[in-house]
Amino acid sequence: MFRSGYGDMLHDKDRNVKYMEGLRNVLQRYKSLDKPVHVLDIGTGTGLLAMLAARLGADRVTACESFKPAFDVAKEIIRLNGFDDVITVIDKRSTDMTEGYHL
């Protein structure tokens, strides 16, 4: 499908736990303000961080991925994990997204 060095990141438990703890802390802080929380995942890859944000309580997650094979994989993984009602995956570079339209 595509060559990358991202496999190591996916299997790096310590790194992923740190991301989860950081997301949890920030999401709890924002959720305590009683406002909707929208997370932007730039370069989502497989969608792991987007799914963590959704699982930890983000009201909405926008994940962008400009590499088409990774975009297709992320959409499918997110759908199979039941997060497609919270996560929108966009096949664009973050710099090509428009506030009010994509975000």
From TrEMBL:
<keyword id="KW-0489">Methyltransferase</keyword>
<dbReference type="InterPro" id="IPR029063">
    <property type="entry name" value="SAM-dependent_MTases_sf"/>
</dbReference>
<dbReference type="GO" id="GO:0032259">
    <property type="term" value="P:methylation"/>
</dbReference>
<keyword id="KW-0949">S-adenosyl-L-methionine</keyword>
<dbReference type="GO" id="GO:0016274">
    <property type="term" value="F:protein-arginine N-methyltransferase activity"/>
</dbReference>
<dbReference type="GO" id="GO:0042054">
    <property type="term" value="F:histone methyltransferase activity"/>
</dbReference>
<keyword id="KW-0808">Transferase</keyword>
<dbReference type="Pfam" id="PF06325">
    <property type="entry name" value="PrmA"/>
</dbReference>
<protein>
    <submittedName>
        <fullName>Methyltransf_25 domain-containing protein</fullName>
    </submittedName>
</protein>
<dbReference type="InterPro" id="IPR025799">
    <property type="entry name" value="Arg_MeTrfase"/>
</dbReference>
